[in-house]
Design brief:
single chain, 289 residues, alpha/beta, 4-stranded antiparallel sheet, binds S-adenosylmethionine
Length: 289
Amino acid sequence: MTCRPKSKEKKTQIREYHTPDCGLFFQAERVIFRRKSRFQKIEIIHNDTYGKMLFLDNLVQTTENDEFFYHEMLVHPSMMVHENPERVLIIGGGDGGALRECLRYPIRQGIMVEIDSEVIQAAQEHFPWLKKIREDDRAEIIVGDGREYVEKKDAEFDVILVDSSDPVGPSQVLHQIQFYENLKKRLRSGGIAAAQVGSPLYHKEAVRRTVSELGTIFSRMRLYTAPVPTYPGGVWCYVFLSDDREPEKLRREPPAGLKYYNPETHRAAFSLPNFMRELLPGKGSQILP
Ligand code: SAM
């Protein structure tokens, strides 16, 4: 189905190239916020289809209207499988969507470690959920480097979620094997971690390398996917990491109010198409019973 552009009026467009010859563009009805922080260029625009959209260095991170796909599928598979998630750590995730999803559970504490205070400030001003999180006594937001946090702190967590941006700039270290070796030391016994690892189409070799490396650190490394309309290729990969938990056993009813996640989408997420099975070490199937 084709569609005519909205108006001939010249508006700001953000073009995100996924390969040198293709990508997505978003028309900004309004530029709401634009600033260069110490770490990256931060932009928030209003687009009539996606609502407010957060970009870091020209790459879309979060949009008001499709963020639920990404955040629910980063958070709920691990939270639903863990027996009793009391302490949760989020690395990155400055827009607050992942922390918001964790706070739907009766956890004792949710800590988010985000390197860029200006992302937090901008998101708090323009995305309604972060303001609410600030009022929740269980939430703690730390401005700092997630790599250093897992290396130097000795706190332990039941669930750790890596909500990083792409492996460029400050996020690069969050895609390295040493980061995951240290992250594992921060997991309590029975703990589960999850991370976003890119597009199965555009970042195929990076996904292959990541799952192969993570498979040497965690006894159970499971690849799963979810649709994210504004991310390159529209389908996104995540990993579920544990030493002793398989993702098939859900321990509770999902929290109320979710838009994407349910036990069926959970199960479907771990059923991989053939071209993605090829990315797994041993090229195995991981269909759940
Ligand atoms: N969901 C988004 C995606 O996959 O595109 C990304 C979420 S989030 C906005 C990524 C955040 O990670 C950014 O706000 C960035 O500042 C933060 N970040 C990057 N490197 C970091 C580091 N070393 N430690 C902590 N946070 C980091």
